[in-house]
Structure formats: structure tokens, C-alpha cells
Amino acid sequence: MAKLQWGMIGGGEGSQIGPAHRLGALADGLFDFTAGALDHRPEAGREYGQRLGIAADRSYGDWKEMLEGEKKRGDDAIDLVTVATPNSTHFEITKAFLEAGFNVLCEKPMTVTVEEGEEIVKIVEKTGKICAVNYCYTAYPMVRQARAMVANGEIGNVRCVVTEFSHGHHGDATDAENPRVRWRYDPAMAGVSGQFADCGIHALNMATFICNDEVEKLSADFASCIPSRELEDDAMVNFRMSKGTVGRLWTSSVAIGRQHGFVIQVFGETGGLKWFSEQPNQLIYTPVGGRTQIIEKGEGGLYPEAERLQRVGIAHPEGFPLAVANIYCDIAAAIRGEERKDLPTAAAGARSMAAVHYSVASAKNGGEWVDARPPMFR
Fold first, then answer.
1. Domains and their CATH numbers in the chain
2. Which pTM was predicted?
3. Each residue of 24-39: pLDDT tens digit?
4. What is the secondary structure of 274-302 as a DSSP string?
């Protein structure tokens, strides 16, 4: 089976997310890294691309040059492009590549406005191309196990879901001008939300993914604990899902002492589940009236959705880059015409972005409950 051709925009030298995408895309031999516009500085991007093995004529200075260059290649063009640039550029780049006939994997958030998210969904429907969003935590095997357990009724109807994504890596006020930190709280680059759009959006998407449900309404409280920040660095969001599930979400970047802090607990009528990203090989299961159990990645009796994504034996850890790799595996399968129901789609990206926007509106109005759905899905 011939490899698919893959290109990347952003994720240049020193990038936090770039290496994870490169490791993930190339881990299974499904893609060749053949094109890129890796830096906002054209010459730096070209030079870095060539150091990574991209041919000189496909190591581009910017995304527009890359789009035109790949369009001219016809059947030899890339099969997938990853957009790993600052939030404010996601929509323009994703839209342009989709309309030109390319499949796209976009970093979250997919867009910075509700209207942009809805437009991407419409473009996907019109073109038939794939637009996935990198909610990569949903591709850990034990997260897929949790989703399958919920879907198969092992904890009954879900009553409540509680999720957090909180860390303390932006808690030092004296580091506020660090470029890798500053842009996340700058509306010109990040959009209307800081921490919630950066990390909380993963937690919200995870809740909808495991529960196979959608957020219908929400109430939010945002705070800038470091006063110089225009956007929030701490947020609490209460939400209700369409099947009646109660949701609680806390996200923070000033929780000093927390390293990653992404955890989700799902409480049903007959049992509960817990998954923690710092121990991703384990899923904690408690049946009503029974003992708490640890379900391990790699053990027998798991659902096929989890078994399919396991790469190494039991007790051997599988980390973040391999979760990203699982997203690329699902995209490769989808490009080749296979059905992949667990792939995070443009619709998921649009719903998440709408929740961010309406959370901002709720927080500005004293936590007023608001409809969390994009207008096109109401």
C-alpha cells in the first residue's frame, strides 16, 4: 500500500506541538512528510523544512505559497495538511485548503468565531473532504474503552460528568511576556478566550466524546488571576447535555503544582469511570455496590475500539505522540474510504468553538445560562 503524502503548516523549530505531529504522522508508515511551511519567517521555515528532509521545492516560505505549489502538482500533491499555527489563522488556512480539494487536520480550536466554525462545516459538506480537529486525547486506547463502556450500558444512563484540565505553567506573573505564553492571552492571536479555548476545550470535547452526547446549555465564570492578561487564565463552566447529564468543568493555567491535570469522571446509574491523562494506560471502574477496579491497557477482554489502538504490551506506557498517531491512523483510513466514527470532525470543532463563545458571553453576564449550540445545530 502506497504511503500518503503529508504536509504541515506551522509547528516549526522550537514549537511545542510540532514534534508531536511529526512523530504521530510518521509513526505507522502511513504518511511521508513531503511538504511544509513551518515558520512565519519564510527563510527559517524553508531551512528547517529541508533539515527535516523535505525537498527544497516543497519547503515553502508561507502557507499561500504552499497551497499554490501543491495545487500545481496534481496527483502528486499532498493527501493531508496539518494546520498548527496560532488560533487566529486556523480558519483562513483551513478554508483555503478545503476549498482547493485538500484534506485537513486542524489544531484546536478549529476557528475563533461561531460563524467561521459553521462555514467550515458547510465547506466540508460541499466538498466531501475530511476536516478533523486534533482532539487527540480522545485517541488514547482507554478513552475509547470508556466510550465503548458507556455506549454498551455498563454504567447505565450517565447522570453527571466532571472534568478538569488545569496546570500551573502560566502561573508566574514575571513570565507574562514570554512569547510562548503571551500569545495565548492576546485576543488578536487567541480569539475571545485564553485558557478555556486552549485547554478547557479538550475537557469539554472529552465529555461529549465519552458520553456520546452534546452540550445544550451552559453557565460560566471566567477570571484573569494575573490582572495584566486580557483573556482568562481560570474558568469554571457548568453545563447540561441533551440527554439530561449534568456537567462540571474547571480549567486553569495558574494552578501551580499541577503538571497536566486533565482528568474526567463519568458517573452513571450503575457505575462510574475515571481517566487521568498522567496515567493514560488505566481506566478506573466502580460498579454500583462493588469494588473499584483498574482496567489496564493491553489486558484481555477490552472492546475492539480500544484494542485497535494498542501498540505495545501491557504495563508498557503509550504516550501523547502515539495518541496523536492514532488520530493520523484514523485519518489515513478515512482518506482511503474506511468509516471512522471516532474521528473528531469539523462538526465537533464547531460545537466546541460555540461553547467557548457562549461561555464568554455567560461569564460577562454573571453566569447567565445560555444555549451552547451553534445556530446551525439548534
1. 4-136 (3.40.50.720), 137-314+345-364 (3.30.360.10)
2. 0.94
3. 999 999 999 999 999 9
4. EEETTSTTEEEEEETTS--EEEETT-TT-
